[in-house]
Amino acid sequence: MDGAARHLRRLGLGPGALVAVAPADPVELLVAVLAADLAGATPLVGDPAWDRERWGQVTGEHLAAHIDAPLPHVPGHDPHPEARPGDLAWACFSSGSTGRPRAIVRTRASWTDSYAHLDRLAGIGPDDVVLVPGPLVSSLYAFAALHALATGATAILPGRWPAGRSLAAHLAGASVVHVVPHRLPDVLRQPGSVRVALVGGAALEPGARAAADAAGVRVVSYYGATEMSFVAMDADGGGLRPFPEVEIEVRPRTDGSRTGSGEARTGAQAPLGEVWARSPWLAEGYLAGAAGPLRRDGDGWVTVGDLAEPYRPGQVLRLRGRGDGAIQTGGATVVPEDVEEVLRKVPGVADIVVVGLPHPSLGAVVTAVVEAQETSAPRRALLEATARGGLDAAQRPRRWFVVPSLPRNPTGKPARALVAARLAGGDPEIRRLA
């Protein structure tokens, strides 16, 4: 690592330099990230498939260098720049549900100082072997890899999701795995030595924790965002509570919306609010002044617009989706995740995305896109019956489609806006559900 960092410094790269890092090999990519940091530069991990034009689009910044191949080792003994907690030492991308990457920069301490808390809550130590089964362009997986090395553990970096027998082989030697919720069942079906699964990126599916318990795997789930890092964690199934050193508030939405889906089923509920957090783990912001959901107030609190039920300190945080994905239909506000949670339980539904499609009088019509093979997809009548039994009238989808595979962003979450765009464009792969 020292030799690679020395090579970068001799190229003139040091504090203030933004370095694009995108070798195809995940191990070489991680070496380049650490070497750039050791040289004092700011590494920005990107997709190896991007060309220089694409890099310019997603950064809007002058890149001091572009690393897309293994770095050479330069011998020597010159000292490294002094590492300071406030250095802008990490930069990564967030696509959210839109699929459009934004580059986010953060200080070194905003990640590294949280490592000890995660070690304690998840029980991870230097004897562990940590499987990081995703692309390091995702901040979720990049953090997982860097944390594993800082803890002294061994990191396994396949660079993407290892399917079939490859997954079994990787899990056979791993004691910890980082996954997104829809991948957890695949892990649990494989015999192996995994004892802890850290699950982030979206809400756990119903029954996931019980299935993990039956397989002897402890699930540690968490809620956060690339802009905010850790916000809340559930280490024992008792619900999400603030991650150490994090303060949480759920505030009324600034657009005046009163989102309270589920009133007809469960009685009157207080309106949902936006989750705000204040902590040492927050990012500095977006590169090149890019627009994004991150907002700040004058007292150090930030939000990305996620919705939750009313919250007081000491309570469990009950998330209800993303405010900017809410569907306005006929004067009602529908949170897509609420609908997806009910319909995901229907046999034959591998996954589901709910979006709003434009409607001349309603504003939008609730539309469901089911991920399933067409020959084994659930019948529309079953889905509609489930919707009638568990959803308010405004929440029930009026249009139903099926697709063999939903598009996903780098963290594994369905790319909601891309699904909506493909529907609007008449994508022939998305077919109406009979």
TrEMBL record:
* Lineage of the organism: Bacteria, Bacillati, Actinomycetota, Actinomycetes, Streptosporangiales
Drop me one GO molecular function for this one.
medium-chain fatty acid-CoA ligase activity
Name of the protein: AMP-dependent synthetase
Which top-rank group of organisms is this from? Bacteria
In its UniProt entry, the species of origin is given as [Actinomadura] parvosata subsp. kistnae
InterPro entries in the record: AMP-bd_C, AMP-bd_C_sf, AMP-dep_synth/lig_dom, ANL_N_sf
Q: Which UniProt keywords apply?
A: Ligase
Pfam families xref list: AMP-binding (PF00501), AMP-binding_C (PF13193)
State the family it belongs to: Belongs to the ATP-dependent AMP-binding enzyme family.
Instruction: List, for all copies, the residue spans of the domain called AMP-binding enzyme C-terminal.
Output: 339-413
| AMP-dependent synthetase/ligase domain boundaries | 77-287
Annotated GO biological process: fatty acid metabolic process
- What PANTHER family does the annotation carry? ACYL-COA SYNTHETASE (PTHR43201), MEDIUM-CHAIN ACYL-COA LIGASE ACSF2, MITOCHONDRIAL (PTHR43201:SF5)
